[in-house]
Amino acid sequence: QVQLVESGGGLVQAGGSLRLSCAASGSTFSIGAWGWYRQAPGEQRELVARITTGGFTVHADSVKGRFTVSRDNAKNTVYLQMNSLKPEDTAVYYCRADNYGYSVAYWGQGTQVTVSS
To answer: Could you tell me the pLDDT band of residue 103, with boundaries at 50, 70 and 90?
Structure first.
């Protein structure tokens, strides 16, 4: 059982930056990978970036070079640094934690990111 709390969302102008944070509590020792997902109005939830506890990362093509996922295992926290934001980045961003066997997923409540032009 893991609880995830996200923060850092908000309203930003195109070209600006935000950093999202996701802090985990509970059985955090069981987390094998973290993920950031987003869901725009009328769209399905999509992967933005993932990172393992060992530091291996993947980023969606749409955000490569602009977004960077990182983590602090000691603090049980994952971050998403978002630079050069575009209006199409507007979405609710969700944090996800998977256990080591990737058999259980935990989701945060989501945080709204709105990019204006």
So the answer is: confident
